[in-house]
Specification:
Blueprint (H helix, E strand, L loop, with lengths): L1 E5 L8 H14 L4 E5 L5 H8 L8 E4 L5 H4 L7 E5 L10 H6 L2 E6 L3 H15 L2 H4 L4 E9 L4 H10 L6 E6 L3 H6 L11 H18 L3
Parallel strand pairs: 1-4, 1-5, 2-3, 2-4, 5-6, 6-7
């Protein structure tokens, strides 16, 4: 069973969008997938509930109350995606950091968002599993507008950080629409969505390498 933690100390960075898309992609690939919602807002849970009638359904689990979600995991679960609470630092993610195989950190392309993420990454760097190289950390540039100077400058800055930039996701209204349907980009084979689907491939390849 592989466990992926999606976390950020900054709200509004697309954490739930990334967690739900990773869960959908895993379920569509044939894995029994659980989505642990540790955010009190419950957005991931509502997304999974909307998906309940699909063949590629995802099991929502409440991760806000401590470790109880572990006992609810079916024995045949192949993938666990954890949507951490917004604003959490490493000290508040202890139970998840001990079980995760990789951490995905979404970052928006603005100076304020990048600066706000630095303290979070610093706390991750001090975690023993991260220090020993057992727990990989990958950055995801989210809601990018590649044609703008701000996005280009943000990508240059992120490229200088010690953690790898493992994906560059372009801004699209499709994400908000799909969330309301309990779906993801991976549920469609439209030519209009193909470029956005391609944005995810580097992240998916990076996650496959996680132990």
């Amino acid at each position: 069973m592989k466990t992926i933690l999606v976390a950020s100390s900054k709200g509004g960075v697309g954490k739930t969008t990334i967690a739900s898309h990773l869960a959908a992609q895993s379920a569509l690939a044939g894995h029994h997938t659980a989505l642990v919602d540790a955010d009190p807002q419950g957005s991931s849970t509502r997304w999974a509930q909307r998906r309940a009638g699909m063949a590629s359904a995802v099991l929502p689990l409440d991760g806000t109350g401590g470790k109880g979600w572990r006992r609810q995991l079916p024995t045949d679960t192949g993938m666990v995606i954890i949507d951490a609470a917004a604003g959490s630092m490493a000290a508040e993610l202890g139970q998840f950091l001990e079980r995760a195989d990789a951490i995905v950190v979404p970052i928006l392309p603005s100076t304020l968002d990048i600066e706000a993420t630095v303290p979070f990454l610093d706390t991750l760097a001090r975690h023993p599993r991260v220090r020993r190289g057992e727990l990989r950390v990958g950055l995801v540039g989210n809601k990018l507008k590649p044609w703008t100077n701000s996005s280009q400058q943000a990508l240059e800055l992120l490229g200088q950080w010690p953690y790898p930039l493992v994906a560059q996701l372009r801004d699209s209204q499709a994400y908000a629409m799909l969330a309301g349907l309990g779906k993801s980009l991976f549920d469609y084979h439209s030519a209009q969505l193909r470029e956005h689907q391609a944005d995810w491939q580097p992240l998916l390849r990076w996650l496959k390498k996680a132990p």
